[in-house]
Automatic annotation (TrEMBL):
This is RDD domain-containing protein. It holds the Pfam family RDD. It is found in: Membrane. It is a multi-pass membrane protein. The lineage of its organism: Eukaryota, Metazoa, Ecdysozoa, Arthropoda, Hexapoda. It comes from Manduca sexta (Tobacco hawkmoth). The keyword 4Fe-4S does not apply. InterPro entries: FAM8A1 (IPR039871), RDD (IPR010432). The chain crosses the membrane at residues 84-106, 214-233.
């Protein structure tokens, strides 16, 4: 299954990439995979009905054309280590939350029978399938509750901009990172740091933030260790970032808006 995912997942994610001038430069999971000159049209919301048919439809517009028409906000792409440190900070905070949830479930609601975890009883029934199912059912139930709390927690953090552009979890706030929508992204050349123009650059809605959180936890839980290599996409965008049409950028209170050259 892992080999099949490694083979097919890059081509699946390519459909979410915008039309690039040189598609072969898109980093893949394996350098042996290369585009064969295919170009995938970039999809943006449908054009108004009163647009003349002679104008190109939005379904066929490239990211550069979208930004040339609507303009784009200039942001700096953060280095990968900042995202990793932010994820680690959030992990510590969520781990404390997990301990609190587990303590409440065990001490107040008695959802888990601690007598089942007796070492001597476990050593006597280590080969009993029914005993193993009883032992793990309570832990699985707690893990589902914990994952749901994590998704809601991240969704509220990412959709609550509080007067700033884009949302962020506590870890991202400490590292100066923000998450904004990006249906079109093009690089800006000649800058010391990786800089892009993106559109529309708005804060995430709660539904988009919740979907991103669900996809993130789904990929990390079910595609491990494949989830580690999702950071190789362009502009340090992960798979769930591409699926949700968002991007992580350096915080900028007043991003410059300009059109593509």
């Amino acid at each position: 299954m892992y080999q099949n995912l490694s083979t097919c997942f890059p081509y699946y994610m390519m459909t979410f990439q915008g039309l690039q001038n040189n598609p072969t430069n898109v980093p893949l999971l394996n350098n042996n995979y290369q585009f064969q000159g295919q170009q995938f049209p970039f999809q943006v919301p449908n054009a108004p009905r009163n647009v003349p048919e002679t104008q190109p439809q939005n379904e066929t517009l490239t990211p550069a054309e979208v930004i040339a028409r609507h303009g784009g906000y200039e942001y700096i792409i953060p280095p990968l280590y900042k995202r990793l440190i932010a994820e680690f900070i959030d992990f510590i905070l969520l781990f404390i939350l997990k301990l609190i949830v587990t303590f409440i479930a065990v001490d107040m609601f008695e959802l888990i029978d601690l007598d089942k975890f007796d070492f001597y009883k476990f050593s006597e029934n280590y080969d009993d399938y029914k005993y193993a199912m009883e032992l793990t059912s309570g832990i699985l139930f707690l893990e589902v509750i914990y994952r749901m709390l994590v998704c809601v927690y991240e969704a509220f953090c990412l959709c609550g901009s509080i007067g700033r552009t884009g949302g962020a979890t506590p870890g991202k706030v400490l590292l100066g990172l923000r998450v904004v929508t990006a249906s079109a992204v093009i690089p800006v050349e000649g800058r010391p740091k990786e800089t892009v123009l993106l559109y529309p650059g708005r804060p995430l809605t709660f539904l988009v933030a919740l979907f991103r959180s669900l996809m993130k936890n789904f990929l990390i839980s079910l595609l491990f260790p494949l989830c580690v290599v999702l950071f190789v996409f362009k502009h340090n965008r992960t798979g769930y970032d591409l699926l949700c049409g968002v991007i992580v950028v350096e915080e900028n209170m007043f991003p410059l808006r300009r059109h593509a050259p």
